[in-house]
Specification:
Blueprint (H helix, E strand, L loop, with lengths): L15 H22 L2 H20 L12 H33 L2 H6 L7 H27 L12 H28 L3 H17 L12 H8 L2 H13 L10 H4 L1 H26 L3
Helix pairs in contact: 1-5, 2-3, 2-5, 3-5, 3-6, 3-7, 3-9, 5-6, 6-7, 6-9, 6-11, 9-11
Length: 285
């Protein structure tokens, strides 16, 4: 007796890049759906930057000297680029905590058991966080306009430059999100991810030109601030917004802030995405 067996057709492997993009979009959609079902995640993420805008504008606005001026209006326009940069940067903490939570619940292990691209889980998560950061940035820009911030305070209003500034902000936020992803993969609990994230976020954001002119800092601290990737993006935004900047600096990132911001962000993504994906392959809950 002979047995007839049906030939099993094996689908040819697809394009790895296309598969990676598809898998990343699926994971991003999953995270966005989760965010939409927990609106307080977005609401609480908006409260902190709005508080910074109000407090720094009305508490410190008349006491800061920017470019030789103590005008509250000049400081307000100077400040907003720093607040925008701080907002996209601090989103890193929640990103790391979310990944650590997925690790703690065993979700990452389940994803690893699926035939998915290796970096898709983390890429999808960071893309979803980028969408949330975009929403936060739009709302914050509206609040800034309400408290008196204006683009083009130095007489040069160009919508293309304004959009480019926000693009640099989102690129910086996306780059730093990969640092958060690496931290989230390296710790065991969401609480540890949040705490360890803040350890580096505070020095990066405050040893910078976000809130004060580094020209008033001690020499060694000024050099740190001027070569800080965060400072480069804040200064690039001031240039593109045509708002008051800091005192004259000969540091390359301050002389070419737009290029410096692009280079810094791309390098951070290249380095920390590689490290995070490598950690994803070996990490255990």
């Amino acid at each position: 007796m002979s047995a007839v067996t049906d030939a099993v057709r094996v689908a040819p492997p697809g394009n790895p890049f296309v598969q990676s993009v598809r898998d990343s979009m699926v994971v991003a959609q999953r995270n966005l759906i989760r965010m939409s079902r927990i609106p307080e995640m977005i609401i609480y993420g908006l409260i902190q930057p709005i508080m910074f805008v109000v407090l720094f504008t009305y508490v410190f606005g008349g006491s800061m000297q920017i470019g030789g001026s103590t005008s509250a209006v000049d400081y307000k326009n100077f400040l907003m680029a720093g607040i925008f940069a701080q907002t996209v940067t601090f989103a890193t903490a929640s990103s790391g905590a979310g990944i650590a939570d997925d690790m703690h619940k065993g979700l990452i292990d389940r994803f690893r058991s699926l035939p998915m691209a290796r970096g898709a889980v983390l890429t999808g998560r960071t893309l979803a966080d980028l969408v949330q950061t975009t929403v936060t940035l739009v709302v914050l820009a509206v609040v800034a306009l309400l408290v008196g911030w204006r683009v083009g305070s130095q007489g040069d209003t160009d919508i293309a430059k304004v959009l480019a500034a926000f693009g640099l902000l989102l690129l910086l936020g996306y780059a730093f999100t990969w640092i958060g992803a690496l931290i989230g993969m390296s710790v065991r609990t969401p609480e540890a991810a949040t705490s360890s994230g803040l350890i580096w976020l505070f020095p990066v954001t405050f040893i910078s030109n976000a809130f004060v002119d580094p020209g008033h800092m001690t020499p060694w601290l000024r050099h740190v601030a001027e070569w800080n990737p965060f400072s480069a993006t804040a200064q690039a935004c001031r240039v593109l917004f045509a708002d008051p900047g800091q005192s004259t600096s000969h540091a390359w990132p301050m002389e070419h802030p737009v290029w410096a911001s692009l280079i810094y962000s791309i390098l951070i993504i290249a380095v920390f995405r590689t490290l995070a994906v490598r950690k994803y392959r070996s990490a255990t809950a």
